Amino acid sequence: MDLAQLGKRNHLLAGLLQQSQQWRKLDAKIKTVLPANLHPHFQTACVEDGRLVLLAANNMAASRLKMILPAMLPKLQTLHTGVREVVVRVVPKPPAQPKTNSLRLSEAALDSFDEAAAKLEGKHPELAAALAELVRKHSR
């Protein structure tokens, strides 16, 4: 999907895309000033009433940012003229969803694997055992 093309047709979407691009650029500039080991643990949210708002992924990143930001404020002010102070908020990332096996094998496939396991038992017992286990796990 080409968002630039859609933005040409809808001025509201074009405005949102432009604003998003500006925030991404500001985030990239801020990350050039702050230590590289913190980059994956925070992102720039906005500049609100002269406050640059940074969102930290965890308490460790937030406390580290809060320690170094007073010294970095002059550099950050050169990146965006409206910045008077910096605020760090903790917004934990949601936990990763556990992976679920969604594999569904038909009865014909299970029968074929079962037959293959029986044929391979003499020459390749490990493969036969793996196929038999596959059939056992997916039998309905």
Would you mind describing this structure in some detail?
This protein is of the alpha+beta class and 140 residues long. It has 2 domains: 3-90, 2-Layer Sandwich (GMP Synthetase, Chain A, domain 3); 107-138, no CATH class. It contains 5 helices and 3 strands. A 3-stranded mixed beta sheet has the order 1-2-3. The two termini are 40 Å apart. The model has no long low-confidence stretch (mean pLDDT 89).
Strand-helix topology:
Elements lengths: L2 H7 L1 H23 L8 E7 L2 E6 L2 H21 L5 E6 L16 H14 L4 H14 L2
Parallel strand pairs: 2-3
Antiparallel strand pairs: 1-2
Fraction in beta strands = 5-15%
As a whole number of angstroms, the C-alpha radius of gyration is 27 Å
Averaged pLDDT, please?
A: 89
Shape: elongated
- Helices and strands: which structural class? alpha+beta
Can you tell me the CATH class of the largest domain?
Alpha Beta
Across the major sheet, the strand order is 1-2-3
Please give the share of residues in helix.
55-70%
The separation of the N and C termini measures: 40 Å
Please mark out the parts with pLDDT under 50 across 5 or more consecutive residues, or reply none: none
CATH fold title of the largest domain: GMP Synthetase, Chain A, domain 3
Please tally the helical runs, counting DSSP H or I stretches of 4 or more residues: 5
The CATH superfamily of the largest domain appears as DnaA, N-terminal domain
Under the CATH scheme, which architecture of the largest domain would be assigned? 2-Layer Sandwich
What does the main sheet amount to? 3 strands, mixed
Count the E strands: 3
Q: H/E order of the elements?
A: HHEEHEHH
Count of the domains: 2
